[in-house]
Amino acid sequence: MPDSLHHDIRGLHLFETMADAHFQTLMRGAFVQTFPPQIDLLTEGDPSDFLHVLVSGSVDLFSAWNGRETSMATVRPVSTFILAATIRDQPYLMSARTLEKSRIALIPSAEIRAVFDVDGGFARAIVTELALCYRSVIKAQKDLKLRTSSERLANYLLRAQDRAGGQDGFELGFEKRRLASVLGITPEHLSRALKGLQPHGVLATGTRIRIADRDRLEALARPNPLIDDPST
Amino acid sequence: MPDSLHHDIRGLHLFETMADAHFQTLMRGAFVQTFPPQIDLLTEGDPSDFLHVLVSGSVDLFSAWNGRETSMATVRPVSTFILAATIRDQPYLMSARTLEKSRIALIPSAEIRAVFDVDGGFARAIVTELALCYRSVIKAQKDLKLRTSSERLANYLLRAQDRAGGQDGFELGFEKRRLASVLGITPEHLSRALKGLQPHGVLATGTRIRIADRDRLEALARPNPLIDDPST
DNA sequence: CCGGTCCCTTGATGTTTATCAATTCCGGCT
DNA sequence: AGCCGGAATTGATAAACATCAAGGGACCGG
Predict the structure, then answer these.
(1) Number of CB pairs < 8 Å for A and B?
(2) What is the pTM of this model?
(3) Whole-number Å distance, CA A76 to C1' C30?
(4) Of A65, A95, A211, B159, which is the most buried if we count CB atoms within 10 A?
């Protein structure tokens, strides 16, 4: 693996506080690969052989059961995924595929577990990361159980606007069918739900969204930091 | 706090591997309290002052938004709750109330964080616990997004039967209205859904469930370890 | 033993969301 | 420019689920 990437990865919260010798151990077994869009990276149920670190691009975590499929989350750089499966040495609960061209570092799970056992700093960093992941799933579950599909959509758009830096207009970043799956609805229903938000100041043209009147949309969405703030 | 309880708590995975001096530190600031049923223990949004350890009884974790409320999970002994909020020193995402008379140990969050910073064994134990919690929420989310309400109910009953030791007949352990909330449906709908499972070998009388033909119920439920196995 | 309360059930109805079947729209290719 | 294929939309219909209103049954205190 090139040294410049070492530096990028070392800069992640997860690897920042660990002993240098341990970091070098991890990097010796690791490698980086670039994947084209729409490539399956791993399948739920598989043994968790590698911790994945997304360096650039984006990845969709999804899951299937009984012929149905749903998007669980989107991974954005720079962050890890399937950390919990790696720690517990258990099969993945979700499948992953690239959304766009992506650079991903793969670190053998066995080495992660070995270093984790001897490096307290690394263990603490993993705790912090896992606690954040846990809380973000809890938020997603509250979103699902407490809100209707329009409310979920409205709040999603508000969060997307924040991610985009608060611009009135911003790009969705992927297909609407995926957004529908993330929201737990069908593409047809999303289409109608978006139309339903027009009177609340939302204009959708293709994958470009414009929020003409954020206050009006917030009056409908009623965003709440205990559900919608991704940083806590 | 009585010494016998020290022993019980020390036996938890979470506290098993830490240094004795650190454990004593934690216990000095801790105290145990017995609560009657239906008592609010904490409210979402509150600062996370104490890590809670449920010694006996059971606790409901729930959440509210915009006038609606939903049950997120049931805590059973012996385990901790609101660990992630404690670690991150952030407000609780869920509220908690006792379901039955419960003994709960309260350990100041600040001390948990302090010991966690200096005791690698404790940090590792927390990682294992958090990874388990994370995976259980992911499973719950898959359950919600991939299954209809009848399928969720059927799989819930199969898991409840396993928890009860595989007996044909077993107790639900709480009101049906709470089960409805856990499943994300209304009590009325649960009532009809239960009736709909009669042809599949389910008999419900009050809070007592009898599964006459597990194979038949499984044919409908299609349980999957990546959703329904709580141990992984 | 009575009345009250709270939960559960049942029925009737309404809303939300999914499904199915056409189009229409759009980007990439030739 | 013209064609192609996948995505998005639209309309019609059905299924899933919620709401409202009214009983019924268990528990509990007087």
Answers:
(1) 150
(2) 0.96
(3) 36
(4) A211
**CB contacts, 8 Å: A152 with chain B:** none
Q: Which of these ranges, A117-121, B1-5, B58-62, has the smallest mean pLDDT?
A: B1-5
**B80 close to B52: Cβ distance less than 8 angstroms:** yes
CATH number of B148-228: 1.10.10.10
Say which CATH superfamily domain B3-144 falls into: Jelly Rolls (2.60.120.10)
pLDDT at A11: 87
Sorted by where each begins, the domain ranges of chain B are: 3-144, 148-228
Find where tokens 């709908």 sit: B189
Q: Which of B78, B113, B106, B100 is nearest to B178 (CA)?
A: B100
A227 chain-B contacts, CB cut-off 8 A: 65
Check residue B8 and give its pLDDT: 79
Q: What gap in Å lies between CA B167 and CA A71, rounded to an integer?
A: 36
Interface membership of A139 toward B (CB under 8 Å): yes
A residues 2-31 closer than 8 Å to B (CB)? none
Q: Can you tell me the mean pLDDT for B55-75? A: 96
B97 pLDDT exceeds 70? yes
Rounded to whole angstroms, how far apart are CA atoms B31 and B2?
Answer: 9
Interatomic separation, CA of residue B189 and C1' of nucleotide D20, rounded (Å): 14
Percent of chain A with pLDDT over 70: 100
